[in-house]
Recover the amino acids of this structure.
């Protein structure tokens, strides 16, 4: 007989790059997880995974079992909610994944208000560098940037323009760029995230232009500094190390207090909208609806 623990094991294996990572997700030791996997495979009479010293991959049978397991777990988690007569009293667990910076500043306060409204609701917030597509077991994922995946339902939370910024001191010492191509002579700070091409900066000049002016310009910068943490990159720029591209939600406070200044304001960079993603197989539960209500009330 297949137990809930077996379903959780299969779902964890589908998301984890190794047996050790799956063990951490389930809060068990790797030897214990390996034993559970061998027992499950023996009971099914199937090989579910191929294990090497560094990596774990599912067999075709394992992939199918993991998909079915994830769907069954989603149904089981939604069952108590579907039986509730009072929709205003939420129970169960709401699992949210979000990027570090935006999650700390905007999502955590929203979840705090949600928890105060629904004291019987358990809330889990997982902050990580790339919450999507790494976190398929979440009820909702906050993602910054475009998404093309029909298995997720996307809702835009904020338009999120991106600004090119530098400290006033840096601009005094090195000069202020007048055109995007001037960046080739400057020290640039790049942020490595979402497997994007972080050194290719695309600019667009909206509105009317004088004769001979370009409407679009793309620059391949050579980064002087690289980090996978946007807060670190912004702090480096505030300390005068170079120019950085940051989301408006992250840079506008520094611009307001004068530690950063916008550069090339007549040019626009590609926007990176803030999206709330919900797996389409889970539908929109009462918990997710309550989250959306709190997000709608939050200041942008």
């Amino acid at each position: 007989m297949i137990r809930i623990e077996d379903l959780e094991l299969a779902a964890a294996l589908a998301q984890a790059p190794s047996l050790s990572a799956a063990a951490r997700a389930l809060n068990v030791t790797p030897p214990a997880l390996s034993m559970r996997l061998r027992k499950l495979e023996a009971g099914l009479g199937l090989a579910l995974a191929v294990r090497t010293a560094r990596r774990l991959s599912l067999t075709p049978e394992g992939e199918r079992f993991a998909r079915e397991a994830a769907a069954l777990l989603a149904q089981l988690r939604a069952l108590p909610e579907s039986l509730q007569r009072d929709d205003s009293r939420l129970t169960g667990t709401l699992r949210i994944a979000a990027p570090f910076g935006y999650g700390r500043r905007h999502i955590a306060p929203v979840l705090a208000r949600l928890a105060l409204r629904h004291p019987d609701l358990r809330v889990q917030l997982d902050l990580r560098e790339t919450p999507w597509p790494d976190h398929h077991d979440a009820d909702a994922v906050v993602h910054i940037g475009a998404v093309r995946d029909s298995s997720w339902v996307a809702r835009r939370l904020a338009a999120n323009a991106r600004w090119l910024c530098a400290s006033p001191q840096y601009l005094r010492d090195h000069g202020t760029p007048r055109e995007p191509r001037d960046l080739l002579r400057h020290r640039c700070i790049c942020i490595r995230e979402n497997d994007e091409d972080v050194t290719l900066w695309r600019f667009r000049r909206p509105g009317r232009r004088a004769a001979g002016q370009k409407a679009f310009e793309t620059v391949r910068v050579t980064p002087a500094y690289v980090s996978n943490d946007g807060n670190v990159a912004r702090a480096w720029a505030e300390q005068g190390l170079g120019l950085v591209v940051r989301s408006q939600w992250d840079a506008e406070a520094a611009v307001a207090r004068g530690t950063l200044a916008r550069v090339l304001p007549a040019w626009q960079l590609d926007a990176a909208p803030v999206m709330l993603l919900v797996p389409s197989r889970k539908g929109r539960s009462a918990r997710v609806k309550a989250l959306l209500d709190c997000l709608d009330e939050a200041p942008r």
